[in-house]
Amino acid sequence: MKRFLPILGLLLCFAGCVKQSAEQGGIPAGNKYATGFQITPTDTGIIVEVFQPYQRVCIKEPMRRLGTMSTVQVGFLYAIDALDCLVAVCNPELIYTPVKGDEIDLGDSMKPSAERALQAGLDALLAVNYGQYDNLEAARLEKLGIFTIYINEWQECSPLARAEWIRVLGALTGKLHEADSIFHQVEQKYIALTASVSERSVSEAVSIMSGNNFRGTWYVPSGKNYLAYLFKDAGAVYPFYDSERETSIPLTIEETLRYFGDADVWVGAGSNSLEELAQVDEKHTWFKAYKDGRVYNWRKQMKAGGANNFWERGVVHPEEMLEDVIHILNNAPDSVLHFANRLY
After folding, report:
1. What is the largest CA-CA distance in the chain?
2. Can you give the residue range of the structural domain that contains 299?
3. Distance between CA 264 and CA 137 in Å, rounded?
């Protein structure tokens, strides 16, 4: 299963936002951007509601023993200084954030070990809802006495909406104030960067492409994907901003060439060098961005085993991701980039 995780990450990277429950309507009270949860303080604690699938959790005292199925959740806990609550993890080799190292290994995130989760004495296992399979897996774990809470930041459309899920982790661990403070700082920096683009702009319109050819199909972000939001906020030209599709857009190589053959930059390539990119598929060399050497991946902070800080700090700090795209459009030096890495 591990060999498929980079592919899964790529496809989820381009997944669009998912519709929330009909009862929810717009953005819940207390949130600025996120639509997938609501936090309601009460006299006896904090009520956390997650909308897809629907869960309602009443937190009367902070949770002190958490397990995680996603490295994104580790990034959130690290940001609010709550790693002391982390006692069990899936796929520890894929965690970039420096954790204690004595966490119980729950095995693969697609099928965590119920026996080890029970051994860890968890208050809750932070799960991810990628589809019907995950719903069934969570149901199996709960039948065995393991309480799960879905952290579905990946379903949100915009970078700031994804980052706002830090509030859920703050509510669970008694650090909602800290989470709100961090998110406020992130939001202000992100908004300032967006404003700076409209003020100074790039010297000329710069077009952008994303993705790779995967088994004959090129998957690109729809207009409801957080990457498309990043591109737009950075001032890039991108043909699918108006797409209402809720999942990534599959293109043939002919369609990809029509839309992106002359794109100035290519962001999110799945290789570590131009030579490797050509070896994966010769068609990658047909694009202007490849010929001009303006191709980037998201692997600047990536360890040999596959752990990538793009999926941890990047989700918590979208302002740094936005800054990367702005620098790329302006052809800035590689040294100023946070998560993006230029291919040579």
Report:
1. 62
2. 201-342
3. 43
